[in-house]
Write a structure and sequence with these properties.
By secondary structure, the chain is α/β, with parallel strands linked by helices. The protein contains six helices and five strands; from the N terminus they run E-H-E-H-E-H-E-H-E-H-H. Strand 4, helix 4 and strand 5 form a beta-alpha-beta unit. It is elongated, with a radius of gyration of 20 Å.
Length: 171
């Protein structure tokens, strides 16, 4: 029995093209055209993978992903975020922080889309890998927090060095 992929996109032509690629690779494809519909279909169908653009009508893909990962019924389902062409790395950090398992940018190369989809589905079905992946996902939000903390430490270290210099000048 083929794995089911929930393919979401507000652009019907892009959704159709992506669905054809996935279908021709042997996947069963269920589709949605907006954020709220994608959540309903995910809860109802429990797909093996959700392919979800970051930009989406009704509710953006980042919020959809956060809601999917917050619900125990859909949290284990891997999410592949898709960014629009011409926006290099737009939404990449936010995508991972929202709980996405992977990120690709349009235009999609069909063999890459198929390989990433298959790998994410394999990862979900391998318990040891799923545990490691969940651990990585839980760490993703802390990456931004660490970056901010590092910047704050550098700022404070600079201020401290200035004050030490002022004290040495006084002494």
């Amino acid at each position: 029995m083929p794995h089911t992929i929930l393919s979401v996109d507000g652009d019907a032509a892009l959704r159709f093209a992506r669905n054809q690629i996935l279908h021709n690779a042997g996947f069963e494809v269920v589709e949605a055209g907006n954020g709220p519909d994608s959540l309903n279909l995910a809860f109802r169908n429990q797909p093996a993978l959700i392919v979800l653009p970051i930009e989406l009508p009704g509710m953006d893909g980042l919020e959809v992903c956060r809601r999917l990962k917050a619900d125990p019924r859909t949290a284990p389902i891997p999410v592949l975020h898709i960014a629009r062409a011409g926006q290099p790395y737009r939404g990449y950090p936010e995508s991972l922080e929202s709980g996405a398992n992977a990120w690709l940018q349009e235009p999609l190369d069909p063999p890459v889309l198929i390989a990433v989809a298959a790998a994410l589905i394999r990862t979900r079905s391998t318990p040891a890998n799923s545990s490691a992946l969940r651990e990585f996902q839980m760490d993703a939000p802390t990456l931004t927090e660490r970056k901010r903390a590092d910047e704050e430490r550098r700022r404070l270290a600079g201020e401290l060095a200035d004050r030490v210099g002022e004290l040495q000048a006084i002494l």
